[in-house]
Design a protein that fits this description.
The chain is of the alpha/beta class. The protein has a single domain, classed as Ribokinase (UDP-N-acetylmuramoyl-L-alanine:D-glutamate ligase, 3-Layer(aba) Sandwich), CATH 3.40.1190.20. Helix content is about 40%, strand content about 20%. It contains twelve helices and 13 strands. The strands form two sheets. Strands 5-1-8-9-10-11-12-13 form an eight-stranded mixed sheet, with helices on both faces. The chain has a five-stranded mixed sheet with strand order 3-7-6-2-4. Helix 7 crosses helix 8 and helix 8 packs across helix 9 (about 230-240). The longest helix has 17 residues, at about 190-205. The protein is globular, with a radius of gyration of 19 Å. GO terms for molecular function: kinase activity. This is Adenosine kinase. Belongs to the carbohydrate kinase PfkB family.
């Protein structure tokens, strides 16, 4: 079958609402800085009413990665669940405006479209207040066979590995991808996700996933160790490639019996760390599908991540393809 897409992402379809707040705002609302807290629909609406000027755009971890790949010039699709409401229409318009196909139909009933209120304090730390709504109701029926079979890589978001229906949707997508001779990829998403689903994630990485994305803490938790070298050795045994982010230290790629360390890029104008891991994955996958070696894939991931943290939001606000062309091969001092 002809490849229609380089990457299709499957994950939570969330509308991000991004705004600046002071530390006093977090204290007033009893919000722990840097945390991600789940809200019900009523409490999410109450918090929203207290916010000042905000940016609203389609979000969700896998959707952010797909958006980055679209900006890098790739053919992409995204599968996620939204309701037929105002935020659902915002999500669809926003993601398709990037050139990404969004084949899933709106839900006609049930919970409202998910939203995440991202509160950014002056130190660029983000505190997320999330109402999951419709996005967790993804089912096997939402997985379009031809979309999966027509993608070089199916990229799965660990955040969605909670509801049984969503797990079955992931399993269907994995089976379709492998039947078509395609690659699968998983982002572990969050240490809390790994803590909840460690045994299932271990099984997935051993049997079903070709390319694993994790940050250092997630990888250590997955393999139940505090030693990074031990975790990387285990990752090499479980999957073809593991790309592990380490914040300002850069990343390390575990593959082919070795670990490749790639230095990070210093960013002097840090604004908002939202989406750094998502855009790292976009940069890495860009390198992978264009045939770059793994060290270069990691370097591209670091570069693209370094751009997204210089402005509000988890989406590129420049042409990443042009940005990559201008900056790849430069040192951090040359940027």
């Amino acid at each position: 079958m002809t490849k229609k897409y380089e990457v299709v992402g499957i994950g939570n379809a969330i509308v991000d609402i991004l705004t600046h707040v002071e530390d006093d705002f977090l204290a007033e609302h009893k919000l722990a800085k840097g945390s991600m807290q789940l809200f019900d629909e009523a409490d999410a609406a109450k918090l929203y009413a207290t916010l000042g000027q905000a940016i609203e755009c389609s979000g969700g971890s896998a959707a952010n990665t797909v958006a980055g790949l679209a900006s890098l010039g790739h053919r992409t699709a995204f599968i996620g669940k939204v309701r037929d409401d105002q935020l659902g229409r915002i999500f669809r318009h926003d993601i398709t405006a990037l050139g990404t196909d969004f084949p899933a139909a709106h839900a006609e009933d049930g919970p409202a479209t998910a939203l995440c209120q991202v509160l950014v304090t002056p130190d660029a730390e983000r505190t997320m207040c999330t109402y999951l709504g419709a996005c967790v109701n993804l089912t096997e029926a939402d997985i379009d066979d031809e979309t999966i079979k027509g993608a070089s890589i199916t990229y799965l978001e660990g955040y969605l590995w909670d509801p049984e229906d969503a797990k079955n949707a992931f399993r269907k997508a994995i089976a379709l991808a492998h039947e078509a001779g395609r690659k699968t990829s998983l982002s572990l998403s969050d240490p809390f996700c790994v803590d909840r689903h460690r045994e299932e994630f271990l099984s997935l990485t051993r049997d079903d996933i070709d390319i694993l994305f994790a940050n250092e803490e997630e990888l250590l938790m997955l393999f139940d160790t505090r030693d990074l070298a031990t975790a990387l050795a285990a990752a090499r045994e479980h999957c073809e490639i593991a790309a592990v982010t380490r914040g300002a230290k850069g990343c390390v790629i575990a593959a082919n019996g070795e670990s490749i360390e790639v230095s990070g890029r210093q960013v002097s104008n840090l604004v908002d760390t939202t989406g750094a891991g998502d855009l790292f994955a976009a940069g890495f996958l860009h390198g992978y599908v264009t045939g770059e070696d793994l060290a270069t894939c990691g370097s591209i991931g670091n570069l693209i991540a370094s751009e997204v943290i210089t402005h509000m939001g988890a989406r590129p606000d420049i042409d990443l393809k042009a940005f990559l062309s201008q900056n790849m091969g430069t040192s951090e001092e040359d940027m």
